[in-house]
Design goal:
Blueprint (H helix, E strand, L loop, with lengths): L9 H16 L7 H20 L3 H11 L11 H16 L2 H4 L6 H20 L5 H21 L6 H27 L31 H21 L1 H5 L1 H21 L2 H17 L6 H21 L5 H6 L10 H6 L6 H14 L11 H9 L12 H35 L5 H19 L9 H23 L8
Helix pairs in contact: 1-2, 1-3, 2-3, 2-4, 3-8, 3-20, 4-7, 6-7, 6-18, 8-11, 9-11, 9-12, 9-19, 11-13, 12-19, 16-18, 18-19, 18-20, 19-20
């Protein structure tokens, strides 16, 4: 199925994305059902138009950025369900799509299937949720898994990664505007597309922006992920070989992402940032191009100089939030218990839930926020919103086996990614550096998940899973040597 000649331009993708987001806003319950239905159908049609044009990567890019928002998040997410319906319609229209091979390995496909089994068993054993809630939770989770499998069939070429990053450039600027507006409120209205906070109490009165995610940790982790993804190609100069414009786009995204970490005032991402920098410098140490690094360093220095005068980013806020942490005597036990990170009570609660059934089976994953809180915390409103730790929460949700399958979805591609990079690291090419970026992204993603959990909301879950699809696809491309390395 040839797609190269049918690719939608960057501006067409952005226009479609804007229209889809606007329509998604009208799918909220506050509008009449007829408006909901017409808007949902409109989203499906726009998604289907990209599929019919055979520009599957454009469809994936649109879906990726749609999932950066909280609205339309429940019951699997309105954008995800519309995308799944569009894919099913297209599969009927052109049955060859079903026959395309997945970029996931057989092991990863098995892990996804086994996660569905764990979800079913956990829901059957769950005594807290209603029958309707359990049926809804199973079929919505199944729908998300099927959507992920469909997405893994999309062939992503090097030029598609360029389009993805170029759209990210515009979206990064948008994220920055939203985040600054949350802090300074220069836009005189509040909407789902430019969200603000209402009635939020901040620790030590330190204001924390959260972008469109409306979650500080997710926003910071996402920002750190973009830095990790793009730094290798910037430092080695391979992105500059694509084009000077593309190189400057990547530098801008990195600087904006650093801003996102400072605006979120998230300690974990702030502490991991220098480790990401050192790790990447070590990996590309033999290929670092001074000319390619100078603009990046200049941009970062400019960022700090301007901030010293304007005080947009309050760096001292990190120290204020960590004032009660006893770093001098911090131990592994303190970290595991969460006692030095204001997580002691929720970690203890999670361990208690695991002990109740031995961890052999979980409570099930609920994509409706109210059901999730009611089942896991026995209240719709309370001091806890989630377990704040992927490894604890996945055991509570699916049991030890389910947690193993979930983590393995990322660990196995990581192993393959590092093996592929070791074989091709001498190639001074765009795609090899992008592969290294994905390697670093997921290494630090799994470290950061000790503090947060990406499965808490279906939209953010899909952002991460699309990252995984992009990762597995570039590994497959490099392993199969499809096309010349570095060709865009």
């Amino acid at each position: 199925m040839k797609t190269t000649s049918n690719k939608e331009s960057l501006y067409v993708i952005c226009i479609k994305l804007i229209i889809v987001l606007l329509l998604g806003n009208f799918c909220l319950a506050q509008f009449p059902f007829a408006v909901n239905l017409c808007s949902f159908v409109g989203i499906v049609i726009i998604f289907f138009s990209s599929l019919k044009r055979l520009d599957f990567p454009s469809f994936l890019i649109q879906l990726f950025f749609c999932n950066h928002f909280v609205f339309g998040n429940e019951k699997g997410g309105v954008f995800n369900l519309a995308a799944l319906l569009a894919l099913i319609m297209y599969s009927v229209y052109d049955q060859r799509f079903i026959m395309l091979k997945s970029s996931f390995s057989k092991a990863n496909l098995s892990f996804l299937f086994l996660l569905v089994v764990c979800q079913l068993l956990s829901l059957v054993a769950n005594q807290s949720a209603s029958f309707d809630a359990k049926v809804s939770a199973f079929f919505i989770f199944l729908s998300l898994v099927v959507l992920i499998l469909f997405l893994s069939k999309i062939k992503i070429e090097n030029s598609d990664y360029v389009r993805f990053i170029e759209v990210q450039f515009f979206f990064s600027i948008y994220l920055l505007v939203v985040s600054l507006n949350q802090k300074f409120e220069f836009i005189p209205f509040n909407s789902q597309l430019i969200p603000k906070f209402t009635d939020v109490e901040f620790e030590f009165n330190v204001f924390r922006s959260s972008g469109t995610f409306l979650n500080f940790e997710a926003y910071a982790e996402y920002s750190l992920s973009m830095i990790a993804l793009l730094l290798p190609g910037v430092f080695s100069g391979s992105f500059k070989k694509v084009s000077l414009k593309f190189y400057l786009v990547c530098v801008t995204i990195i600087v904006i992402s650093i801003s996102g970490i400072f605006l979120s005032v998230t300690r974990s991402s702030f502490l991991l940032l220098p480790l990401v920098l050192v790790f990447i410098l070590y990996k590309v140490r033999k290929r670092v191009k001074v000319k390619a690094v100078v603009p990046f360093i200049t941009a970062v220095i400019f960022f700090f100089v301007v901030n010293s005068y304007v005080q947009i980013f309050d760096i001292s806020a990190f120290a204020e939030r960590s004032s009660k942490m006893n770093l001098s005597s911090l131990s592994i036990t303190d970290i595991a218990s969460g006692s030095e990170m204001n997580r002691g009570s929720i970690f203890a609660y999670a361990f208690k839930r695991i002990e109740q059934n031995g961890g052999y089976i979980g409570e099930g994953y609920f994509t409706t926020v109210d059901d999730y809180k009611s089942v896991h915390f026995h209240r719709a409103i309370g001091p806890f919103a989630d377990y704040h730790n992927l490894y604890l929460s996945s055991i509570v949700i699916w049991g030890y086996l389910g947690a193993f399958f979930l983590v393995s979805l990322f660990v196995l591609p990581l192993y393959k990614g590092f093996v592929s990079f070791s074989k091709t690291s001498k190639n001074k090419s765009y795609d090899v550096d992008l592969l290294l970026g994905f390697n670093v992204l997921f290494v630090f993603f799994l470290i950061n998940q000790y503090k947060i959990q990406f499965v808490r909301e279906s939209n953010y879950l899909m952002v991460v899973m699309i990252f995984l699809v992009l990762y597995c696809s570039i590994i497959k491309n490099i392993e199969s040597n499809s096309g010349s390395l570095g060709h865009v």
